[in-house]
Amino acid sequence: MQFNQDTSIVNLLPNETRPALRYTVANPTDFDIEVTVSTAALTGISVASWFVTRLFTSTDTSPATMLVASGALDAMPNTVALRIPAGSALTFTYDVMVSDSVGNDAQGATVSFQSILNARQV
């Protein structure tokens, strides 16, 4: 399994959505794998609930995206098991939005998060 990612610092206004993390998982083996993704806030945990997050996937054969998880960054659900066929790849993209219910308290707030990938042969 190969793993490539890029990270960025994203500045947001309420109701503005931007991609915050994108990575691709390639399966160069001759068997299928299943991956499950979980998300956890690392810093800024007290303000993580202000950030609404959506996780999308796309394949190397189709640019169409599929929503696989969404929620507040401090309570993001795990994805279901996602199959990556032998010789294929799956790209994950996190879109982050600041909730429109936050006030001036959110100004300058910073949250770091991690995406945890579990994979198994199927």
Automatic annotation (TrEMBL):
It comes from the Bacteria. This is Uncharacterized protein. The lineage of its organism: Bacteria, Bacillati, Actinomycetota, Actinomycetes, Micrococcales.
